[in-house]
Amino acid sequence: MDEGGEPIRLRERAYASFTRHLLARDVRPGQFVSQRELVALTGLPLGAIRELVPRLEAEGLLITVPQRGIQIAHIDLNLIREAFQFRLFLEREAVALFTASAPDTLLARLRREHEDALARGLSGDLTPDIEEQAQAIDWNLHDTIIDALDNEIIAKAYRVNSIKMRLINQERFRIDGRVVPVMREHLAILDAIESREPQRAVEAMTQHIDNARNLALRV
Predict the structure, then answer these.
(1) Which pLDDT score is estimated for 11?
(2) Radius of gyration of the chain, Cα coordinates, nearest whole angstrom
(3) How far is it, in rounded angstroms, from Cα 160 to Cα 16?
(4) Where is the signal peptide (predicted)?
(5) Cα 91 vs. chain centroid, distance in angstroms?
């Protein structure tokens, strides 16, 4: 039956709906939910939710607690350390390869986005919308570097970890008030990429991820 396509599409819709609501904070880390509450949340049938739960458990996004139900994963120190270590392993290698292959036109666009965001940050007139745009620019650079690998196995694993990183970001260290230092760190990465010096790009990426990890662990 799975080969028919519709059950697979339904499972993917359930996954996309759940993760969208999770990142929108409609459900929160540590919260207990029932399968029927997930049905109401996602608008999808119970069968799709029942098939979704094992996948989310395998990805570490929730756990089933006997006698209590389904619990959204906690943001604890262990999760933070593991998620950041995973990022370092992937993104250091990815940025080295990206440095050698990224088109100049793409780099020029990324630089414009970051310089515009930095200018808005330095102006001191930061609205929630501008901070949200800066956050999107932040995530997009990392996603772009990973996507450039054109490796679906890595992309899937990265997307799962990226959900955890966004949850950590929401709970521990939002970009609010930090637009200027984040954009400067990203521009240092772009400087290194544009110079076509892979080791320099790796060092800049490592420093950026280490800074974020230290913030998350310190809060």
Answers:
(1) 82
(2) 19
(3) 11
(4) none
(5) 12
List the chain domain ranges. 2-72, 77-218
Residues 161 and 83 sit within 8 Å (Cβ to Cβ): yes
> How far from chain centre, in Å, is Cα 46?
28
- What's the residue count for the chain? 219
- What dotted CATH number matches 2-72? 1.10.10.10
pLDDT of residue 1: 39
Strand order of the sheet with strand 62-65? 32-33, 69-72, 62-65
* Residue 32 neighbours by CB under 8 Å, 6+ apart: 65, 68, 69, 70, 71, 72
Q: Cite the beta strand spans of the chain per DSSP E.
A: 32-33, 62-65, 69-72
Is domain 77-218 annotated with CATH 1.10.443.10? no
Q: What is the mean pLDDT of each run of 10 residues along the chain (219 residues)?
A: 61 90 90 92 90 92 89 90 96 98 98 95 83 92 97 95 90 72 97 98 97 86
The pLDDT value given to residue 7: 66
